[in-house]
Design brief:
single chain, 324 residues, alpha/beta, Rossmann fold, Zinc Finger, Delta Prime, domain 3, 2 domains, 5-stranded parallel beta sheet, 16 helices
Length: 324
């Protein structure tokens, strides 16, 4: 059975993992790098199902109930994977498997391991126990230590083109097809803004986040081109109150500012705005220097959010910086 068949795109990664699993050349660890929702976890799961060798074990892995497959992630309310989590993983790695012919550990957001945690994992990657596999899922440009990344081959997940995204979404979820039929413009906008990530697109369709964030960005731009700083600072309550959503908001805001800058310079293609005509009034409101400065503010605050900063304070300071 081909457990990779249901994964869209990522042909190189599928071929590499599938061939290694079937020929006995599977590495003890792999780094799967790509944006969230781009198939990283699905690739790891399909590879483990292939390694299992029988449908009963593969089914348990696919349903997430195999006791020999562990998923390590950032604890709720924390910003990093800690050294204590990796020490626990290391202890479990040396125990014999319960049901499967191997043990496996999938580390989600591996780039968010703190340095002591990465060093603790390094010792395990240098001398791994027999029959134990590791998958490190991380985002592009991750901050894995060079000593860690050198211990495992890196496979990159692909960004699907909008046409492929359309086909995949409509095949996977009836809600996507209804959304496409009912709101074709919003659907096209979603396809171009989910960074080739099926998971991100499905989440946006389910939560309606795209429409919400679009309106929030437009509201902020209106205040930024006005003269009422007090109203701008009060807008802090309208910004996303979850770290992940706030990062997404910053991405959209930087895209909107980029659109305005590009059109001021004579360009036409937009990333955030659904129609270039929407950008006109903003082109007169901001200078090229101001737009460049505000884009940099968005990038700076996105980087800061990787650390355990106070989110409410970050939102207030963001608005102060954007006003300046």
């Amino acid at each position: 059975m081909d457990y990779f068949a249901g994964i869209y795109g990522n042909q190189t990664a599928k071929d590499t993992l599938g061939r290694a699993a079937k020929t006995g050349t599977f590495a003890h660890a792999y780094i799967l790098e790509g944006v969230p929702g781009s198939g990283r976890f699905s690739l790891a799961r399909a590879a483990l199902c292939t390694l299992a060798g029988n449908e009963q074990d593969a089914d348990r892995i696919a349903r997430g109930i195999a006791p020999d497959v562990s998923v390590i992630s950032v604890p709720e309310g924390k910003s990093t994977i800690t050294v204590d989590q990796i020490r626990t993983l290391r202890s479990e790695a040396y125990l014999a498997p319960h049901e499967l012919p191997f043990k496996a550990f999938v580390i989600e957001d591996a780039h968010r391991m703190n340095e002591p945690a990465q060093n603790a994992l390094l010792k395990l990657l240098e001398e791994p126990p027999a029959g134990v596999y590791f998958f490190l899922l991380c985002e592009p440009g991750s901050r894995l230590l060079p000593t860690v990344s050198s211990r495992a081959p890196t496979l990159h997940t692909e960004r699907l083109a909008p046409e492929s995204m359309d086909k995949a979404l409509c095949a996977l979820d009836a809600r996507a097809l209804r959304f496409k039929q009912d709101k074709p413009e919003e659907y096209a906008y979603l396809l171009s803004h989910c960074e080739g990530s099926i998971g991100r697109a499905l989440a946006a369709i389910e939560s309606g986040e795209q429409d919400i964030l679009y309106g929030t960005v437009i509201g902020l731009l209106e205040l930024l081109r006005g003269a009422d700083k007090a109203a701008l600072l009060l807008y802090e309550k309208q910004l996303p109150d979850k770290r992940e959503n706030f990062c997404e908001f910053l991405l959209h805001l930087s895209e909107a500012l980029r659109d305005i800058l590009i059109l001021k310079k004579g360009g036409e293609q937009t990333l955030f705005f659904r129609h270039a005509e929407e950008v006109g009034e903003y082109c007169f409101a901001f200078s090229e220097r101001a737009l460049s400065d505000k884009i940099q503010v968005c990038l700076d605050y996105t980087e800061q959010l990787e650390y355990n900063v106070n989110l409410r304070l970050a939102r207030v300071r963001l608005l102060e910086a954007l006003w300046g």
